[in-house]
Amino acid sequence: MAIITLTTDLGDKDFYQAALKGSILSLLPAVSLIDITHNISAFNISEAAFVLKNAFPYFPKNSVHLIGIDSVYNQNTRYLAIRYRDHFFVGSDNGIFSLLFEEDPQEIVELHIMQDLKFLHFPLTDIFAKAATHLAKGGKISEIGLPVSHVEEKMSLQPVIERDIIRGSVIYIDSFQNVITNITKDLFTRVQRNRNFALFFRRNESITQLSWHYNEVPEGEKLCLFGISNYLEIAINKGNASGLLGLNLGDIVRIEFYSEKNV
Amino acid sequence: MAIITLTTDLGDKDFYQAALKGSILSLLPAVSLIDITHNISAFNISEAAFVLKNAFPYFPKNSVHLIGIDSVYNQNTRYLAIRYRDHFFVGSDNGIFSLLFEEDPQEIVELHIMQDLKFLHFPLTDIFAKAATHLAKGGKISEIGLPVSHVEEKMSLQPVIERDIIRGSVIYIDSFQNVITNITKDLFTRVQRNRNFALFFRRNESITQLSWHYNEVPEGEKLCLFGISNYLEIAINKGNASGLLGLNLGDIVRIEFYSEKNV
Amino acid sequence: MAIITLTTDLGDKDFYQAALKGSILSLLPAVSLIDITHNISAFNISEAAFVLKNAFPYFPKNSVHLIGIDSVYNQNTRYLAIRYRDHFFVGSDNGIFSLLFEEDPQEIVELHIMQDLKFLHFPLTDIFAKAATHLAKGGKISEIGLPVSHVEEKMSLQPVIERDIIRGSVIYIDSFQNVITNITKDLFTRVQRNRNFALFFRRNESITQLSWHYNEVPEGEKLCLFGISNYLEIAINKGNASGLLGLNLGDIVRIEFYSEKNV
Predict the structure, then answer these.
(1) Both C22 and C129 in a single domain?
(2) Residue B262 above 60 pLDDT?
(3) Is CB count within 10 Å lower at the N or C end of chain B?
């Protein structure tokens, strides 16, 4: 059965989410509708990009991922359908796609809009549901829009490398209050070159050991690891790292690498 | 695949929602179970009616909409199955149906109850799941109950029109904190007759322009529009209208219409 | 269609829940994925056991129930698949199964783990999804692990009976703020032997009548009943019993039984 996933800020309380699902089911009754989440903070495309970027690779190829964030119509809005790593994405060209993709997509089209735009109150039901079901049925992406060369760019905070130091920042706090930075395992490994390190944050906190699992330290102790998100994560075994360590979104962390004899 | 939607106040944490879904799947494994929401405020049939009224038309005809709000058994309780605009509804006759429907339903039956009512602890699994799956399978509504002429009436606050003034009230605050009133587009258009208007609320706030989209005003500015709910809505572009404007459920709003030359 | 239910503490906001669903759908696209809940308090296996114990019997036989709580790998961790009352359960052997089952399961196996455990960051997608889909497809439990004789025991607080008194405790507060104790209907009936009783809690509160339904007392009045959970429950008709009566998790309640003439 074809899969359409939904990533939105519509919440779990209003009728908006149901309207979207009803619209999809009216066009394609035999579809597997999977909620990635509807609890993205309102209009927060960075958060949506982080969540979907980490979730979509788990789904089968040819899944369709509908993104319903910050999609209100205005004159400059473009609605896109995109093929990337053999998955399909439908959403508003508000910058989220540049945060989501690490390389150029396979295909990008700007969706045809057949209606009077004045009356386009809910593009998710009016435009996105049609595009997503078309793709879920195996329809060609070229049939629903005209080719576009690139997506809107939105800058994201990247880690800075200065010789033996990586400066990164906190990009996500999960519901266990684990603190996730923008330092990938690839970057860490490349700069580390097997040396020892110290990860500094807040005033005097530091961690000098990389764990494999949350429970390698005693309960209540802090640790750092590359979790399932593949980003460096600061956690407390069975504890609230964000709260207890005072680490919030946007906070800076610093990793210093040492040749072995200095440690 | 047959569709059964669920609108309840059971929340997303206890086992009640799962018990309902398990009961339905035990009777009809090949069903598309769609959550409208389980986060209706406890016992709040007005809120449930608002959400479902706006959501159900997006679903295909013959969808079954199960309503699990305020359904505890007592001697005066009637459990109903209803056909309305070629959709099916199953729930308790607690007044919600009069809030949900704008015209007389096509069919109403009071559900047969085959068990000792003393032991009827959870009508959603015991009664509603059976009725909903019967209808989802294409069974006749007349096979599960006896005809009833009308549903329990519950009064809802209606707007009042005095010559060139509409007085309405706030009936819903959505999760973006948009403020939704009980003034429909039809009523507004009928009284407006192409004249200018001013929408007044709180002490000194007013809006004199109708927007088509949330983003027609600068971010942080207030606006009013007919959103996807088809009711007049007061919003702030990317902001919290309820909080910032101090508008809460039940608050009064007033629209005055002017002949063009007076404005 | 095969059913896999999910009971986790992953929340409704991060990508973890979606990663689990994507993993399952990649292995078995034609599956009915049902959320029991993802809102179990972090690491709370007692809460998860209570919810799933009350939910699973509503599902059809041969349903697979995946439990994603407290499953981080360590040297002593065993991951199990279990057949119990013709349902299947997959999860970590952290004590939850002893809380979930009332008699010995039909089969228990310790799951084969084919990968380097160092890199096992998310057993839910790596191990549990494989086991659950194998079972959902009708595969034998003996094909995915080696037999194990018993599950890890975790003690739960049991009611104490002293002659004509039952001392129990509060084990769950639901989202309506109903207060659920660990006193089952069986135990109550066995000790009661048709006598009158008084249920005492907090300092001076007591209830001497067993209700069948929440609405047998006036709105705002307290009552006790055996609800759908089959445990003795203290509630307020349409009110917040936990808050208004000051009853919290772990609090003690006492039932005294009287011969008829003494009352």
Answers:
(1) yes
(2) no
(3) C
CA torsion angle C183 C185 C189 C191 (round to 10): -20
- Note down the domain range covering B165: 160-262
Same domain assignment for residues A112 and A19:
yes
**Per-residue CA distances from C101 to A81, A125, B157, C154 (Å):** 49, 45, 51, 11
Tell me if chain C has a CB within 8 Å of the CB of A55: yes
Query: Given A11, A72, A125, which is nearest B175 (Cβ)?
Result: A11
Interface size between A and B, measured as CB pairs under 8 A: 91
Of C101, C119, C147, the position where a domain reaches its end is C147
pLDDT single digits (tens) B220-257: 999 999 988 889 999 999 999 999 999 999 999 999 99
> Is pLDDT of B263 > 50?
no
User: Which of B123, B147, B171 lies at the terminal end of a domain, its last residue?
Assistant: B147
Arithmetic mean of pLDDT, C67-87: 93
Asked, for residue C36, whether it belongs to a domain, the answer is yes
Q: Does residue A18 lie in a domain region? A: yes
Nearest CA-CA partner of C105 in C71, C56, C44: C56
Determine, yes or no, domain membership for A153: no
**B123 in the same domain as B18:** yes
Find chains touching chain A: ≥3 CB pairs under 8 Å. B, C
Please give, rounded to a whole number of angstroms, the shortest distance from the CA of C85 to a CA of chain A: 29
Q: Residue A64 sits in a domain of what CATH number?
A: 3.40.50.10790
Q: Which two tokens stand for residue B210?
A: 């109708």
Decide if B35 touches A, using CB distance below 8 A.
yes
Q: Across the interface, do A18 and B1 touch by the CB < 8 Å criterion?
A: no
pTM value? Answer: 0.95
What's the pLDDT tens digit per position in A165-192? 999 999 999 999 999 999 999 999 999 9
- A24 to chain B nearest CA, in Å? 9
Segment among A30-44, A208-222, B111-125, C141-155 with least mean pLDDT: B111-125
Residue (of A230, A130, B57) closest to C122 by Cα position: A230
Read off the amino acid at residue B145: G
Q: In terms of domains, do C94 and C120 share one?
A: yes
Q: Quick check: C227 and B16 in contact, CB under 8 A?
A: no
Residue B153 distance to chain C (closest CA, Å): 21
pLDDT at A13 over 50: yes
Count: domains in chain C: 2
In a domain, B152, yes or no: no
**Do C137 and C170 fall into the same domain?**
no
